[in-house]
Write a structure and sequence with these properties.
single chain, about 50 residues, mainly alpha, about 0% strand
């Protein structure tokens, strides 16, 4: 059984989780398209879909 989350750990865990989501979203965009997509484009949509 996992131990309860301590308040001091919450921000770190959230940051790690969001970092993994961003990495997956970037990895899902082909190399040639990464510059043109950027965060405001499809990358942001991928990120938003993963969080929702």
């Amino acid at each position: 059984m996992p131990r309860p989350l301590r308040v001091a750990e919450a921000a770190d865990r959230i940051a790690l989780h969001l970092g993994r989501i961003v990495q997956r979203a970037i990895a899902g965009v082909p190399d040639k398209e990464r510059v043109s997509v950027g965060l405001p484009g499809d990358l942001f949509a991928s990120f938003a879909a993963a969080v929702a």
